[in-house]
Specification:
Length: 364
């Protein structure tokens, strides 16, 4: 159980707006659990977080230090969230100092890294002294409480869509979140199943930090969360957040997502302006067509559309990329952040026209 209170500062020094700042990026865009007061990143101090990320101000300032963030809040915020997400999942010495300073000020810590702070004697002692909690979001349940694949996924009668991609930190979670919101706004009951630490921190009700599990349980845990979402929400459709890429040399959790959720459709997120994999610059980015072919060969599913990450692209280049994908692959494409969300909903309705019945059964 988390303590009472929801105000939070997000620490993301030198990484906000970057791939390794994806947890902070996600919280600025969407948070159901916390009221985000500010982001710490001295590189962009004075900017609005929403304007920096998406060109639209959201009133969350970027500040230079923890001291400045506390002063801006006007009182002690409840939480300090570690918003960095490096590939190795470990804290640097400088990052440790800031989180320990937050504890000394009486702030609870939310940590999404692979490094569990509740196993660190210095953090445990500091938390006890200040009377605060540390939540290690990625810490898996005891093995006795984990699930193997059981086949219960065959009892889930609503369609599932997995949002996969051609690389890590490419926008899969953002697309999945926007899709769920847009479907619900159209009167289609959609629920999201998260598979990473950021979705859990954002307040997602169903999810598991998949990359922290022993592989034996990955497919089963995905299946279990999808079944829980189906039984708990009675949705018209379930959207499953992807991780990494099926073709990625290091992040292989897409395979478990496909096996565990058995999606009827897949949306592939691609960054046409990205030349190499984000954390592995020695590896060229795959072509979206090759990723689509790999997904459809690996699982009994079909790619129903492609969503474009617009990094390094002008608006004209985004349009050209969308047109090229649609022409080459014969599936709809869109950019969820710069094009109308109705395009994303229409992508789903074109693949699953039976969902249109939901609009008359329970209109928005």
């Amino acid at each position: 159980m988390l303590p009472v209170g929801s105000t939070a500062i997000v620490y993301c020094e030198a990484q906000f707006g970057e791939q390794d700042g994806k947890t902070a990026n996600g919280l600025v865009r969407h948070s159901e659990k916390y009221e985000i007061l500010s982001v710490i990143d001295s590189r962009h101090a004075g900017a609005d977080a929403g304007a920096l990320l998406d060109g639209s101000a959201n009133g969350i300032p970027i500040l230079s230090s923890l001291t400045e963030a506390i002063a801006h809040a006007g009182r002690m915020p409840d939480y300090l969230i570690c918003g960095v997400a490096p590939a190795d999942g470990l804290l640097s010495d400088a990052q440790r100092i800031v989180l320990l300073d937050g504890i000394a000020h009486g702030m609870h810590i939310i940590n999404g890294l692979h490094e569990f702070l509740n196993d660190d004697a210095e953090f445990v002692a500091a938390a006890l002294l200040s009377g605060v909690t540390i939540t290690d979001v990625r810490r898996p349940k005891d093995k006795k409480d984990l699930h193997l694949f059981s086949g219960r996924i065959f009892d889930v009668t609503c369609p599932r869509i997995a949002v996969l991609g051609t690389d890590g930190a490419i926008g899969k979670r953002t697309t999945a979140t926007l899709l769920v919101q847009a479907l619900n706004d159209r009167g289609i009951r959609a629920v999201m199943v998260g598979t990473g630490q950021t979705t859990i921190i954002q307040g997602g009700r169903y999810g598991v930090a998949l990359d922290a599990l022993v592989p034996q349980f990955c497919s089963g845990e995905v299946e279990n969360q999808v079944v829980a979402a189906f039984e708990g929400e009675n949705p018209d459709i379930i959207i499953v957040e992807g991780q990494g890429a099926l073709s990625h040399p290091a992040y292989l959790t897409s395979a478990h997502i496909l096996r565990g959720s058995r999606p009827a459709g897949v949306i592939v997120q691609h960054a046409p302006g990205r030349q190499v994999l984000g954390d592995f610059p020695m590896m060229p980015m795959p072509e979206v067509a090759s990723e689509v072919a790999l997904i459809e060969a690996f699982a009994d599913t079909r790619v129903i559309g492609v969503t474009v990450n617009h990094e390094n692209l002008t608006d004209a280049q985004i349009t050209a990329a969308i047109d090229e994908i649609e022409l080459d692959l014969g599936v709809p494409a869109t950019d969820p952040l710069t094009r109308p969300l109705s395009n994303l909903v229409d992508m789903v309705l074109q693949a699953f026209p039976e969902l249109s019945k939901s609009l008359t059964q329970h209109p928005a």
